[in-house]
Every structure is written in structure tokens, then in C-alpha cells.
Give the backbone structure.
Amino acid sequence: MSIELLKDYPYLYETHLHTSQASACARYTGAEMAKSCRKAGYTGIIVTDHNWGGNTAVNRMMPWRMWVNEFVKGYEDAAKMGKRIGLDVFFGYEAGFRGTEFLIYGLGKEFMLGHPELKTATVQEQFHLVHEGGGMVVHAHPFREESYIPEVRLFPEYVDGVEGINATHSNHRSTAHNDPVYDDRAIAYAKEHGFFMTAGSDIHSTDLLGGGMAFRRRLESVQDFIAALKGGEDYVLTNGDKWFTKYGEMIR
């Protein structure tokens, strides 16, 4: 596929992407995902594999240091490929708490290695630890209903933002979790609490959906991504079919 970008927002980033090296539900390696995204027209990707509390592919019984070193391999492979082909690759992960999930941006491997307490942290403790590391917490697909999610649980005190657009909910090519009302509810929730919104595909294979966030400029790092969102910078959201303002209003 090839993504049709908006003229004023030519830099598109996939903010929710899984690799087979660290997510048991993913089908392709970080390098394969990077090549696919570059070919489709993405400027960059944020690798957000499932951590120990979610559908991780890494043995939870490993010692912490060994676990972290294995967990980041999908990102590291994507980053190596990204350097070769001109794709920005940033690190994140998706934290799971009995089906409720959060996208964690801005922590690095070294911070994780030095903070094994991340593994046993509550939602509240996670929020403070992530902020200590200079990161941010985004509630992923907060209103999704699936068998692995026992109930919708919201934590407005312990998130920085909300994933308002998840392409698996509303893109016409999606075969998973397909119900646009989940996004409608997420957008309304974000507006109610004044949260910034993100958009991503929640992609697990090279059969891309084209979702993500597009900016007027190229981002320099994951910290630059965080600063852009927290600083109120202009950007747009897409599910691969439709485009929205950062406030959730449809552009086209």
C-alpha cells in the first residue's frame, strides 16, 4: 500500500506497532515492519511491544536484565533497518494490567534496566515512574471490548493522553476489533478531560492500515514527540481512511 499524505502534514508516524520478537500476537520482525512502513510512506514508527503484563513473547521467568535485553530486540532490529532505509524508529512499549493497556513513550532500555520495580508497579506507580524517566503515559484503546479485557477501566488521574484513533477499530481493511464506536467514545473521553489525543494502527503485521499521526515537521526523537504533544504543537490524526484534527474533528 502507499499512503496519501496531507500536503501540510507530510511527516507521518506510526505510534502503535508490534514486532514478533517481543509481542506474541505479532507476525513479523522489527526489520520487516520497518521496511514495510518505509515503503508505504511513513517518516517514522514507534515500536510498542507488549510488556510483561500483556501478550509478550519474552519469557516472564527470565531475570530482569535478561528479560529487558530480549524485549528490546524487536525495536533494535527495526532501528538498525531504519538507519539503512531512512526511517525514524523510536522506542516505546504497551503496558498491560489485566486487559487494560497503556502506551509508554520516552523510557529507554537503560532506564528500564535500572528500574526493575516497573514490573510490579501499579497503574499509579507506573505513572510516577514513567514521569521520573521523562516519559509519558497514553491510555491505549480505552473503550475496546474484547474477551481478554474483563471490563473498561479508566484512570484519568494517571495518564497524560488518550489514543483517540486506533485504526483496528475503524479502518475498512481491519479484521480485528472492528467497531468505530470505540474510537468515538475515546475521543469524547479525551475531550471531557482535556487530554491530547494520539492515533495509531495497533499493527501486528506488514499488512498495514495506514493509521498514525502526521506533523508539519520531522521529529527528532521520541522526546521530541512527547514535547510536541505536551506543548500543543499542531498535528493531525488518521485511521488510514479518514483524517482528523488533533481534537478529533474530521478533516476528510
Summary: The radius of gyration is 16 Å. The mean pLDDT is 97. DSSP finds eight helices and ten strands in the chain. Helices lie at 30-40, 64-71, 73-85, 109-113, 123-132, 167-170, 181-193, 222-230.
